[in-house]
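A common beginner's mistake is to predict each chain separately and then try to dock the pieces by hand. The better habit, illustrated here, is to supply every component at once so that their relative placement is modeled jointly.
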Amino acid sequence: MAPLKVSVLISGRGSNLQALIDACATPSFPARIVKVISNRPAVEGLARAENARIPTQVIDHREDKDRTAFDSRLHEALLEAGTELVCLAGFMRLLTAGLVDAWRDRMINIHPSLLPAFPGAHGPALAIAAGVRVSGCTVHLVTSEVDAGPILAQAEVPILPGDTVETLHARIREVEHRILPEVVGELIVA
Ligand code: GRF
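With all components supplied together, the output reads:
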């Protein structure tokens, strides 16, 4: 079977993108990254894609008059790349219901908490503030409600005494780098 064509959406560091790039380097891995799209120019994740000779595109949301205009450029770029699966990996923009519906069951996100706990942009900080002993990460299908779609995979990460947002998030990222490629490698996209 032909490998699944994945487009990865990023906004920054791209360490999860790197984990997918590394997984795709194994010939038997059943997916390939066909495009990396960032809503921010000159971020580290774009350099990671370029190093791996993956086509990149910057779609800067500041150039669009509203979310619908941005999302329609995104949609076109995804179609143009022949995308079969969209992977949000540190993509820090809310998407319109129209775009989410267009990619229903074909768009996944990685989130740094055990959803449904601590959705939103500050998962690790919220977990520390709440005083929980265990956090983790979640890969889920994207629906129009933020961080609330059906869960595909989760893994726990303990919160250690003295953890800061940075140390916790760094340990969560290590686990994300394992579960995200696992999900992409096992996903059956209709
Ligand atoms: C990850 O922790 C991911 O769960 C969250 O944003 C972070 C992105 O990290 N959505 P990176 O850009 O992949 O390094």
